[in-house]
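User: Hello! I'm new to structural biology and keep hearing that structure can be predicted from sequence alone. Could you demonstrate with APO domain-containing protein? Please show me the input and the output so I can see what each looks like.

Assistant: Of course. The first part below is the input, the amino acid sequence of APO domain-containing protein. The second part is the output, the predicted structure written as tokens.
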Amino acid sequence: CFGCRYCGEIHVGSVGHPFRTCRGMSSDKRKGEHDWGSTFVEAVFLPVEAYHLEDRLGPRIPHDQRFEVPRIPALVELCIQAGLDLPEYPTKRRRKPIVKIGRKEFVDANEDDLPDPEPDKFKEPILEEVSDDEITPPSSPEETAALAEETLKMWETLRNGALRLMKRYSVRVCGYCPEVHIGASGHKARNCGAFKHQQRNGQHGWQAAVLDDLIPPRYVWHMPESGELQKELKIFYGQAPAVVEICIQGGAQVPEKYKATMRLDIGIPSSLKEAEMVV
């Protein structure tokens, strides 16, 4: 997997693709050509962060407290609000519905009559993060294919689970920038730097988020069977999420839902002369 040193584009393959689509620094001098180099897993699975709310029904985060509230992966924050308990990120749990005393005011219900909550004996421990030194590559083609199938299955499980949680818990995204907030109302931090942010004093334009806002798929060019991309035949190539493309090149079966964007039903000409004959 390669990443451009000047822009955020990545490519999954033995060498970088030949398309001149770079818009980074000094791209005009390079005529849009990418400068490929090694990349990291964060370039494939984009880390989207959000503010951690100790009380998801509490007041919105003001601008002057934006550095006092910790930021964690948005997917983790969504799981915490859905019931996941992490000691380093405490959150308030209510066992009774709130009591509204006004249009935007409420008080917590009295829970003194409830017994102390018992620990869940069926709760599974959270898996610890594996360090890079402990990760070993597969040693055979069969092991590579099995790992690719398992990774692709986990990718779909992750996205399907996140989509189900988003239908129950509100997730907001700025309509101008990629900022994500887990909660019914977005925060008040004025840190939007998108187009015409001066006119809005840096305020975000919050709207309902979709799954791709929380877990960006990061589309890359799909490598054809020939294993080579030609810039003259760009219109014939398809794309797939980077995680999916890595798994497919590792030996996993192509999921049905990605076949359309990968354009597998389109025959790729062998040369530019043959492409010019296409009607």
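User: So the tokens describe the shape?

Assistant: Right, they're a compact way of writing down the 3D structure. Reading them back into a model, for example: Residues 2-45+216-276 form one domain.
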